[in-house]
Structure formats: structure tokens, C-alpha cells
Design a protein that fits this description.
230 residues; alpha/beta; Purple Acid Phosphatase, chain A, domain 2; nine-stranded mixed β-sheet; seven-stranded mixed β-sheet; 16 strands; globular
Length: 230
């Protein structure tokens, strides 16, 4: 069996996983971005009715990834909660599931623009960023950041033409200096990597790691379909 595509970022060997999490084997670490717990109930409060099962669906997938990878540490890269009131809307079952996860491993909540002050009674440690050796983990990429930045926030997605049809989906994106993870939450959308506010963060030659058909596909930027700016 061929080895899954990997990313070397500032000397660290990282594995993008088809579920949308990132694995750092050397540090026994699983990284996940933009869980957006309770996005559905947040929209419902504003009159936009979405199915109320997004948190449970997100936790189902996250639990399976943690059970399979068995990390010692999880880093959640911000916007884990959809808004500052999301924790209060969580049902008891989902609340207990989150607490069980944070009790299993060393858990780090990176703060995001949606959750600048994550509730600490869920377990884990909240911090603006985490620096570990060659890597810095934060919610939103900084244009002036040195090599080794790992972040979320932008919900990257990509599309390409393949044998006369269009194939697309969520993706990891990197130019060897920084890496941006796809959003993990059930109701999170995607921003095309060719959009200017995302494209400007990367060098001319970058790669996406597209999640499709239960696999990760490494695709050079030159093979992507371009989405016109609006």
C-alpha cells in the first residue's frame, strides 16, 4: 500500500488525514480546525432553520478519528464553538461527550474569532496560540508569520477538472511555509483557495491536499480550476 501524502513544514513531518484532521506523529498530536459546535442552533435563533444535529455529527466523526489515531494531544485551532453562547445551547449528551474527549488526552482550545473565550468547564486549556518546536498553531494565518505556521479559519476548498468533470471539496493547503486546515464542522462551508484573501497568503507554487473518495490527493496549484473573484 502506498504511503499517504505528507507535508514537511519547517522540518516537521505532518500527515493530512482524509477525515480532515492533521496528524503530527512525532508529537503524537491530532490537530483539528473549525468545529463550529452548535452552528445549527445559532442559525435557528436568527430564524434560519437548519437540522439541529450538527454538533452530534461533528462529534461522531471526531471521536472516530481520535479512536483510530490514538493521540496523546489534541489541538483545536479555534472556532470550536460557533458563537459565545454556543456552550449554553449544547445538550447534556453532547456536553458529556466533549468532556469525555478532553479527559482522554491533553486538549488545547486555540481561541478564534467566533470563540474568543472558550468555556473552561469543558476541560482542556485555552490559549491564543501554541508554539511547539518548529511549529506555531493559531486560529488565523498572519501574512508576516515565519515558517511553521499551522492554522484554520478560512475553511479552504479546491476544485479541478478531471476527465471532463469537475471534482472538488475541502482541502488542506500549503506552500511549505504555512499550512491551513479544512473546516471540520458538519455545517461548515468552504472558501476556494484561488480567492484573493486566501491566495495572497501563499507563494506562487503551492499544493492542496484534497479530501475525496476517502483519500487525500496532492494537487499542484497549476492544476486547479480558478474561481473568478467577486
Amino acid at each position: 500500500m502506498s504511503r499517504p501524502p505528507s507535508v514537511v513544514l519547517n522540518g516537521a513531518d505532518l500527515l493530512p488525514d482524509p477525515t480532515g484532521v492533521l496528524v503530527w506523529p512525532e508529537r503524537e498530536t491530532l490537530v483539528v480546525a473549525d468545529l463550529h459546535f452548535e452552528k445549527g442552533s445559532g442559525f435557528a435563533r436568527r430564524g434560519v432553520m437548519l437540522p439541529p444535529f450538527d454538533t452530534s455529527a461533528t462529534l461522531d466523526r471526531l471521536e472516530r478519528a481520535i479512536d483510530r489515531i490514538r493521540p496523546n494531544r489534541v489541538i483545536a485551532l479555534g472556532d470550536s464553538f460557533h458563537d459565545t453562547a454556543a456552550a449554553g445551547r449544547l445538550g447534556l449528551s453532547d456536553s458529556n461527550r466533549i468532556r469525555a474527549l478532553t479527559a482522554r488526552v491533553n486538549w488545547h482550545w486555540i481561541t478564534g474569532n467566533h470563540d474568543p473565550d472558550p468555556p473552561l468547564d469543558w476541560g482542556g486549556v485555552a490559549q491564543a496560540e501554541l508554539v511547539d518546536g518548529p511549529l506555531t498553531f493559531r486560529h488565523e494565518a498572519r501574512a508576516d508569520a515565519p515558517a511553521g505556521e499551522v492554522s484554520g479559519h478560512f475553511h479552504p476548498s479546491a476544485r479541478l477538472r478531471l476527465k471532463g468533470r469537475s471534482v472538488g471539496g475541502r482541502c488542506f493547503v500549503t506552500d511549505g511555509r504555512r499550512l491551513i486546515l479544512p473546516a471540520f464542522g458538519a455545517f461548515t462551508g468552504g472558501l476556494d483557495v484561488t480567492r484573493p484573501d486566501l491566495r495572497r497568503l501563499f507563494a506562487k507554487n503551492f499544493d492542496v491536499f484534497l479530501m475525496a473518495s476517502g483519500r487525500i490527493w496532492r494537487i499542484p496549484a497549476g492544476k486547479l480550476s480558478t474561481v473568478s473573484a467577486i
